Amino acid sequence: MTRAYERLNDQLRVIEMIPNYIMHPEGSVLVSFGDTKVICSASIEERVPPFLRGQGKGWVTAEYAMLPRATGTRNVRESSKGKVTGRTMEIQRLIGRALRSVIDLDALGERTIWVDCDVIQADGGTRTASITGAFTAVALAFEQLIQDEKLTKNPMTDFLAAISVGVSSDGEVLLDLDYNEDSAADVDMNVVMTGSAELVEVQGTGEEATFSRKEMNRMLDVAEIGIARLIEVQRDVIGEFAETIGQQQVAAWSSAAGEGNEK
Amino acid sequence: MTRAYERLNDQLRVIEMIPNYIMHPEGSVLVSFGDTKVICSASIEERVPPFLRGQGKGWVTAEYAMLPRATGTRNVRESSKGKVTGRTMEIQRLIGRALRSVIDLDALGERTIWVDCDVIQADGGTRTASITGAFTAVALAFEQLIQDEKLTKNPMTDFLAAISVGVSSDGEVLLDLDYNEDSAADVDMNVVMTGSAELVEVQGTGEEATFSRKEMNRMLDVAEIGIARLIEVQRDVIGEFAETIGQQQVAAWSSAAGEGNEK
Amino acid sequence: MTRAYERLNDQLRVIEMIPNYIMHPEGSVLVSFGDTKVICSASIEERVPPFLRGQGKGWVTAEYAMLPRATGTRNVRESSKGKVTGRTMEIQRLIGRALRSVIDLDALGERTIWVDCDVIQADGGTRTASITGAFTAVALAFEQLIQDEKLTKNPMTDFLAAISVGVSSDGEVLLDLDYNEDSAADVDMNVVMTGSAELVEVQGTGEEATFSRKEMNRMLDVAEIGIARLIEVQRDVIGEFAETIGQQQVAAWSSAAGEGNEK
Amino acid sequence: MTRAYERLNDQLRVIEMIPNYIMHPEGSVLVSFGDTKVICSASIEERVPPFLRGQGKGWVTAEYAMLPRATGTRNVRESSKGKVTGRTMEIQRLIGRALRSVIDLDALGERTIWVDCDVIQADGGTRTASITGAFTAVALAFEQLIQDEKLTKNPMTDFLAAISVGVSSDGEVLLDLDYNEDSAADVDMNVVMTGSAELVEVQGTGEEATFSRKEMNRMLDVAEIGIARLIEVQRDVIGEFAETIGQQQVAAWSSAAGEGNEK
Amino acid sequence: MTRAYERLNDQLRVIEMIPNYIMHPEGSVLVSFGDTKVICSASIEERVPPFLRGQGKGWVTAEYAMLPRATGTRNVRESSKGKVTGRTMEIQRLIGRALRSVIDLDALGERTIWVDCDVIQADGGTRTASITGAFTAVALAFEQLIQDEKLTKNPMTDFLAAISVGVSSDGEVLLDLDYNEDSAADVDMNVVMTGSAELVEVQGTGEEATFSRKEMNRMLDVAEIGIARLIEVQRDVIGEFAETIGQQQVAAWSSAAGEGNEK
Amino acid sequence: MTRAYERLNDQLRVIEMIPNYIMHPEGSVLVSFGDTKVICSASIEERVPPFLRGQGKGWVTAEYAMLPRATGTRNVRESSKGKVTGRTMEIQRLIGRALRSVIDLDALGERTIWVDCDVIQADGGTRTASITGAFTAVALAFEQLIQDEKLTKNPMTDFLAAISVGVSSDGEVLLDLDYNEDSAADVDMNVVMTGSAELVEVQGTGEEATFSRKEMNRMLDVAEIGIARLIEVQRDVIGEFAETIGQQQVAAWSSAAGEGNEK
Question: Which residues bind phosphate (chains A, B, C, D, E, F) (predicted)?
Fold first, then answer.
């Protein structure tokens, strides 16, 4: 089987990020993983949700949506349905959790970062593109906060990116699946990793089959290749400000206290 | 008072339309009125709502939304609120009604055109940009239907565009108000017109003042100038296919039967 | 074509207002435009919505509903549907905006006027009857507030009434359309005007056709006749208290600040 | 303690019913129990809910609402809240169940009677006024159906009315409590009875106290007096058609099959 | 007709209560009336709803639900439907009202008792089992509060239990109907009584027939027998702490002030 | 650090399953993982959702909920909130997906298995207990279907169980975390595996830290131990019928076609 655009199995699609794509947010980016295109924005609100008030620490939360015709057939708008689907909730919880793992919430101070990931065109991998773009948008927003002298240091402790890997029906391990590949794959795994190649989140699912420990390991190997390349692109877009990431010495990791009872 | 970018009072902002901006819809366009940017798409569904079934005629309906951070301060997502605001409903009803006034629903046949207008950046005039862009997206979708031999003739009976006009607090009549001008204006009017300079919809509101018949007439004069210019841009984008608009001989206008009881 | 009850084209239906129709509200009226009957009430709440708190000014807001069997076929109750339709939202936003245009919100002080318009029988023109009746109910409530020494002056700056006009399919301009006329009309326009014949709101729609500038002007001429007559009826019902309307010297018009971002 | 308007303890308030109060429904009445006023209407729909289809029998269902300012302080509209309160649901289930007890659903045939009870002014006893008025509205609708030759016989098996009784804090048993009496009462009981003095529904509640078997019996005695008087008023309003009630020989009572699982 | 398990007409099913059935609530019980099984829990919250704040008195409220497959055919989950049915609301209002009739809310102090009744298996009588079990769970919670020295006296003024009675189609009066008996009964009545045999709530409904005063009295006689037996079981489960019930001298009964406007 | 009840790091809590715990469902079990207790039931519906109709294959779907007081502090009921939380949706999607991986939907035929997992007491691991118990309940339901001669063969292709593993803050890998351990853990991973030790789902999250590939491998090793033990317990409960699991020769795995667009 040959992949579209003659990609190798462990090769990403064309990755692009246009910084400051829209004018109002403190940070924004249009991220493309091939034909998948997501507008990611980071907005600063100078207060935190009730469960964190008065603790001197910040919060990062994310929302995710698709334009109705981002996909091959039109989806009913979630605002018309009057509710958010389970899939959307899963994705936005994942994006927020992943970002919080590389942001020192104490260093952020009592403010909230609202991340919005709006998919304008979908061709597989919308959640991984969203995480990767969201990281960049948040970095641009932090740069702005430091320029405005509201922050003295970048609260980011490391880089962060996400990629999908899978096992095709003929047993090949593929990196960054497009929609057709994803629909045909036996196993689908999303991996979120830091710039230090530490794992943040691993979600592997046998959609039409189970998978072995060996296949799992091979998928993680390939994911590492992709993550490293994505972080290179982030570094380019962020420019000099990239040097400030990870400078923060973190004594204790920030804990997701607000979700305690529900965990 | 001078306008931003040294515009004259009866001059539009920079108008741009990028056709086929996203790949899945049958027709799409990214329309800009200055810094206001809207993705308009037209999707074809091969059936009609229940109230029209079996009558051999089509339907056109529209939905409108803004990205949460299309504006200066972030808006709560309507899908999170679980309901669509009154403002959104007003706008999407207006877009659908306006488009139906220049589409021969009998000629369209039993299919629905779903128009989606998603504002990615807002600076005043989002509803007029949406109508103007939506007309173009629908034209591109009709071109596709004819190429696919699903339609033999373009069901559009005329061009259609929309523009805002207003009276500033110092009494000047302004065309195509940006957000700052709109916020400061005493009177605000949205005008939808056809290529034959016939009125389709007039909605004038004294937000901070009442207005006289004379002011109303002056506003309509200026609106006509803007509409004519917008239709030139549409003509450019649509290209040769523009020649097919209005060819349709319409014996009886299509009636908005489905809204009967509620009108 | 002859109109029902041998009305002339520029003649209203029989207009009646029964003041204090229900006993609990500070002001109430049962308004009839022919067979269209609406209970309008004005309730005083001694506080304002959050966006206005501490500014020393008041607010006026309106809600509109129909009994399920106010119409020829029964409508599903909006409380059963769990949501308010777009049409209802449009109408209640219009009623509130229109009333605010003739009420000095600074003179009102930090209190809210809740206007409820409940249609008990519908035969066309429910929104114009609602605005015209609501103005009267609010005047009665203000009279009560002054008697209770909570206000010293009437905050109303002018009279206000609303009427529909239209163009029939045979080209005649008609005043105050009943349901049958409205269903058959090519063009439908609602006009809200003050006692000084200034325009407050103009909403014209070509439901089955477009319309020319000339037709628009003819409709406005006829609307003025109707508005003047409606204000005579209001004056009768309000009695002596009518003298206090417009006494208020208004330096600056009250601005609809609360809707800023959404306008 | 003297009652308002010098009523005796076992005396009703002034009872009035204006038949055909609104023009569209098949049957309607404005019922007053003193200052409590309810518009009751009965609408015919020529089909039944899914759980009854194809069984040749009909259905009767009821909805109840209050105008926001029917009461001393304004209530939030249930359509704005997006849901119906528990109190409203209790009342509308009670009205429907009571009416079904005196209507032969087999004789009705496959059609639904939609009963709407809209309280325009409330002063205690809105649910009993609703049931009593609803019975009358339904009778008028049946008269219409027989005139239209859609029915040959009146499906009503008996008269039906409802009244409240209570025990005051000084131990007196009162008939037809107004709002002040109801608020001060220790015990509150709603009784629905037929023209043959059979019980259909008894709902007694010790709001601020418990009550003895003896008090319960005294309350039922007084309720019987009130019910008999209410049925006289119904008989007057219905006129000659009253003779057709109860003619129907009923072999087997109609069962509330549709609520089976939930009973 | 013989009853299942050879019960006499005035005999209860096997009644069981397992105290402290789940570990987290301050009080809990698994109550069985034959095959009907309900988990009742009482949770203490150290604050009251807004309408009671600052008055020094407490509140008791209840929620009721069934597992989807507590019944013979699976019910759709109310959380999936996005709303609570009318039947559920009726039952939870009844449970709360009944409990408040034997709890001195002043003696309780500014705290709320949340009662949860979750039916895990249903065979008729779920509401009466819920009230009877809820009383026990609340008593256990009060015992805990006294042990924790948050209360000095038990605020319960009397015992409380509930039972269903009915009239079968062959005219026999039955106690504690199971699902089959309930489905076949002509009349169905739920009775809530105190340890002093005073009535708290009587809800009788002719589901397929009306009923006479004589039948009503016979049903109340039989209900008294059942209530007395249920209170014996409660006394056993509560143990020594039962002695503290009713010690409280109550000058004035606590009034359900918060529901004033809605009563 | 010592674990509660002196457990070893790679030891499960006490695991119990009471089969046929409630009487109405085709299959049910009360599963306990220590103090975590979940009622799992499997209900058969003899039809499939619309997206599968006419394809001759079945469907398995799951719902998950907690009693309000299953936890240390009371949670608001999702039916009262009117919506299901993101966490609940994630869990119920996971349960359904996991079960479908070991059920041959073609062999099941056109029927739906509704799985309900209701947590009555929570102490960590509610989702893994739910999956493990749900598998057992479904097996019991299939046994019933075969006894009723609606199925000839068990459609289960393998056993299935789930367990949590984590890394404590002092770096130890723990099996089957209770609530306190889970709250304190740095990394949390849920693993779903088959009887053949193949992976079905892996969800690892660094809640307060990232994790290395090495730690991930150690967690999977320990999970395998737990899964094997859980399947022993399932085998005991299911009895002889366990022999029928995996007999089914599966040519092609059943595909989750219904979620296509959303995947």
Answer: 87, 125-127
For residue F105, the distance in angstroms to the closest alpha carbon of chain A comes to 12
Closest Cα in chain F to E42: F69
- Closest chain F CA to residue E117: F67
The answer to whether the CB atoms of D23 and C121 lie below 8 A apart is yes
CB–CB of C23 and D80 under 8 A?
Answer: no
Residues of E in contact with D227 (CB under 8 A): none
pLDDT value at residue D244: 95
- Is D171 within the bounds of a domain? yes
Tokens matching residue D257 = 């099959």
Count other Cβ atoms within 10 Å, centred on residue C72.
14
**Among E145, E146, E149, E179, which Cα is nearest to E164's?**
E179
Give contacts of A86 with chain F, Cβ < 8 Å.
84, 86, 89-90, 92-93
Cβ pair A115, A93 in contact under 8 A = no
CA distance B224 to chain A (A): 30
Neighbouring C-beta atoms of residue F87, cutoff 10 Å: 17
Burial profile B192-204: b = 16 or more Cβ within 10 angstroms, e = fewer: bbbbeebbbbbbb
Domain contains E140 = yes
Are D79 and C78 an interchain contact pair (Cβ–Cβ within 8 Å)?
A: yes
- pTM tops 0.90: no
Q: Does F75 contact A at CB distance below 8 Å?
A: yes
% pLDDT > 70, chain C: 93
Measured between alpha carbons, how far is E8 from E226 in angstroms, rounded to an integer? 12
What pLDDT band is residue E151 in, cutting at 50, 70 and 90?
very high
- The ipTM, to two decimals, is 0.90
The pLDDT score that the predictor gives to residue C82 is: 76
- What is the four-CA torsion angle of E125, E127, E132, E138, rounded to 10 degrees? 150
Q: Quick one: B249 exposed, middle or buried, by C-beta within 10 A (0-12, 13-18, 19+)? A: exposed
Which distant-in-sequence residues (6+ apart) come within 8 Å of B89 by Cβ? C85, C86, C89, C90
F48, pLDDT greater than 90: yes
Distance between CA A241 and CA A140 in Å, rounded? 8
Which pLDDT does position B253 carry in this prediction?
41
**The domain containing residue B217 runs over which residues?**
15-246
Per-residue pLDDT tens digits for E214-235: 999 999 999 999 999 999 999 9
The verdict on whether residue F47 carries a ligand-binding annotation is no
Q: Which residue has the higher pLDDT, B122 or F80?
A: B122
pLDDT tier at E181, thresholds 50, 70, 90: very high
Does the structure show a pLDDT above 90 at D176?
yes
Q: Considering only the C-alpha atoms of chain D, give the largest distance between any 2 of them, rounded to a whole number of Å.
A: 57
For residue A203, being part of any structural domain is answered with: yes
Residues of C in contact with D41 (CB under 8 A): 67-69
Cα distance between residue D48 and residue B234, in whole Å = 52
Chain F: list its partners (3+ Cβ pairs within 8 Å): A, E
Q: Are C26 and C117 in contact (CB under 8 A)?
A: no
CATH code for the domain of C209: 3.30.230.70
Question: Using CA atoms, how far apart are residues B57 and C47, in angstroms rounded to an integer?
Answer: 52
CA distance, residue C23 to nearest chain B CA (Å)? 31
Contact of B127 with B162, CB cutoff 8 Å = yes
Share of chain D above pLDDT 90, in %: 83
Q: List the one residue out of B131, B197, B139, B196 whose CA is nearest residue B164.
A: B131
Give the mutation candidate from F210, F227, F254 for the A interface (greatest A CB count, under 10 A): F210
* Interface residue F22 vs chain E (CB under 8 A): yes
Contact at CB, A203 and F208, closer than 8 angstroms: no
For residue A209, the chain F residues in CB contact (below 8 A) are 101, 253
> In chain C, how many domains are there?
1
Nearest to C79 by CA among D82, A2, E105: D82
Residue F127 lies in a domain: yes
